[in-house]
Amino acid sequence: MTDDALADDHRVDDTVEVPEAWEPIPGEDDGIERITFVDGVRRVDARLTIDELDGPLPGLCGTFAVGAVQWDRTIPAAEVTEAFVERLALFSGGKASDLPSPGPQLSYRSEAIAETDPGLLVQRLHGSMRRAEGELSERLARRGDFVVADGPINDLSATEKVGYVKSHRVPYLEGDRARVIGMLAAGQRTPMFLIGAGGAYPRYSWYFRLADIDGGHSWTGIARAEVSSHLDLEAAQRVAARITAVLPAVGSAAHLDPRAPQNLVPIAALERELRRRMGDPAIVYRALRAAVADQGRLSA
């Protein structure tokens, strides 16, 4: 499932949990001992050009890394438990080309798209990362982990995994419902609403506040979460109560992270580790330039 598909969300049922007037709902810490966070990072390593008889075609080399970090609240400590890196050489015009290996740890898998828009190559890289995130989240959830995945969920099976959304591009609520968001204190949430009601990808969602921040606007510290609507309502309420109460403890601090408090501390640590495993971008770029230097049709 793509982010674009998930964004087709304008059918909202805001009566699924509280049909009457809304008020903030406090979270409830049920004492869960471990939470697994899943995230991915991506990078364009180099732009490529394929010389064809009828003109050059764009391509790119890109890398993404996906992993998981488990927060053990009993210690407390967090540890990276999963991490993998994948490298793609993406070509437009339906014409894939084998990329010479730049080194023993820099093997790129070639793929082609039919279109010639360079922006679609970046979308393909992003989509590959998002699919890998979804597959890892689902595997860990089926294993029994309680998973919080950075970004919208893209697998709607009935497992207890949460999509954690930091940015607010789509206004899901209006009027009195929307005003409740600004009334939230740290550790409180809105009632749940159903996104994509009647569509192919329905899921329960709610807003919650991570921190009370002096001098901020009414949505400062607000995040949104979502779970599959294939969970029954009681299970979804239990998950909503849990993360509303617990996640404020790992909200980042403004003097350490410009995306505070929404960029959670375990996720920020995971992102740093994944970028380290992707390798230094300048070294990777030089290796790619050297690898295609003798290729008559291919340049970086």
Question: Given the C-alpha coordinates, what overall shape results?
Answer: elongated
Tell me the series of helices and strands, N- to C-terminal.
HEEEEEEHEEHEEEEHHHE
pLDDT averaged over residues: 91
How many individual β-strands? 13
Radius of gyration: 21 Å
| Proportion of residues in extended strands | 25-35%
Into which percent range does the helicity of residues fall? 25-40%
Stretches where pLDDT falls below 50 for ≥5 residues?
1-8
Chart the SSEs and their pairings:
Blueprint: H1 3-6, E1 12-13, E2 25-26, E3 34-52, E4 55-72, E5 77-91, E6 109-112, H2 118-143, E7 147-150, E8 161-165, H3 175-183, E9 188-189, E10 193-195, E11 203-209, E12 222-228, H4 233-246, H5 265-278, H6 281-292, E13 298-299
Parallel strand pairs: 3-7, 5-6, 7-8
Antiparallel strand pairs: 1-10, 2-9, 3-4, 3-13, 4-5, 8-12, 10-11, 11-12
Task: Explain how this protein is built.
By secondary structure, the chain is α+β, with helices and mostly antiparallel strands. The chain has one domain. The protein has 6 helices and 13 strands. Strands 1, 3, 4, 5, 6, 7, 8, 10, 11, 12 and 13 form an 11-stranded mixed sheet that branches. Strands 2-9 form a two-stranded antiparallel ribbon. The chain is elongated. The two termini are 31 Å apart. The relative contact order is 0.21. Residues 1-8 have low confidence and may be disordered.
List its salient traits.
300 residues, alpha+beta, eleven-stranded mixed sheet, two-stranded antiparallel ribbon, 6 helices, elongated, disordered N terminus
